[in-house]
Amino acid sequence: MAGKNGGKIIANLIFIIISICCVLPVFLILSASFSDNTLLRQQGYSLIPRGFSVAAFEYIFKVPKAILSAYRVTITVTVIGTAGSLFLTSALAYVISRQDYYLAKVLSFLVLFAMLFNVGMVPTYITMVKIYNLKDTLFALIFPYLIVPWNVFLMKSFLRETPVALIEAAKIDGAGEIQIFFRIVMPLAKPALATVGLFIAFMYWNDWYLSMLYVDSANLSSLQYYMYRLMNNITFLSQSMVSANVDLTQMPGETTRMALCVLAAGPMLIVFPFFQKYFVRGISVGAVKG
User: Which domain holds residue 92?
Assistant: First the structure.
C-alpha cells in the first residue's frame, strides 16, 4: 500500500513539474510584454516585469481601428468557419463510419487520398480566384479549411463506435437518417465535437497564410496576418536603425513581440477552460477507441 502511494506521489510530482514547464513560458511572455524594453534587453526575462511599462501595447494600439478590424475578421471567420467545418466534418465522418453504407469505403479512400496528396498552392490559388472568384472576400478565409481530411478521420474514430443497435432501433421507430444524425449520434458525440471543434477553431484563429494569398483589402486582414506585417515592420525599422547607428532603446522591439503573443493567444486561452471538460473526455475516448 505504501509503495502504491509512493508511486502516486512520484507520478503527481512529475506531472506538476511538466505543468510548471508548460505554464512558465506563458508567464514569462506576459511579464515581458509589460516590461521596459531597455531593461529587458539589459537584464533579461523575469517572472516580474522589468520596470512596468505599457509602451509595447501603446505602440500596437496606435491605430486601434486596424487591430480591432483584424480582431473582428478573425472572430467572424473562426466562429463561422468552426461551425461550418464541424458540421461538414462530422457529417462526412458519420457517413464513412457506417459500415452498412455501400459507398463508405470509396469515400474513405477519397478522403485518405486528399490527405496524402496535396494539389499544391498554384492549382488551389487558381481554383479559389479564377473558378470560385473568392479573391478579397471573407469566404476566402473560410472555404479552404471547411473539410480537413485529418479531422474527418479523427471524428470517424469517435463515431464508428456508435452502437449499431441504437441506430437500428431508431429506424424501427420510424426515424430517418437526418433525425438519427442530429438527435442520436450528435448528442452522444459531444466530447468528440468539442475536441475536433477546438482543433478547427485553433486552425482558423492562428491562420495568416490565407490572408496573405487571397486578401488585398486591409479591412479583411486577419489578426495573425496583421500582427505578422506589424512584426515585419518592426524588424525592418530595427535593422534600418542599426545600419544608421541609431539608438534602439526607444524602439519597443522585444516587448512588442511578447505583447503580440499575448494579444494573439489571449482569447483562446480564455475560451479553452470552458471546453476543457469535453476536450479531456474526448481525448480519453479517442485514445481508447483508436
Answer: 57-289
Q: Return per-residue pLDDT of the chain as tens, 290 residues.
A: 555 677 788 888 998 899 888 888 888 888 888 888 778 878 878 888 888 888 888 888 887 888 889 899 999 999 999 999 999 999 999 999 888 888 888 998 999 888 888 777 888 888 888 888 889 899 999 999 999 999 999 898 888 877 788 888 888 888 888 888 888 888 888 888 888 988 899 899 999 899 999 988 888 888 888 888 888 777 776 666 655 555 555 556 778 888 888 888 877 777 777 666 665 555 555 444 44
Number of domains in the chain: 1
In a domain, 97, yes or no: yes
Within-domain flag for 34: no
Per the listing, cell 506589424 goes with 230
Nearest to 33 by CA among 21, 48, 18, 22: 48
Whether residue 52 is contained in a domain is answered as no
Q: Residue 75: inside a domain, yes or no?
A: yes
C-alpha cell at 161: 463506435
Residue 280 maps to which CATH number? 1.10.3720.10
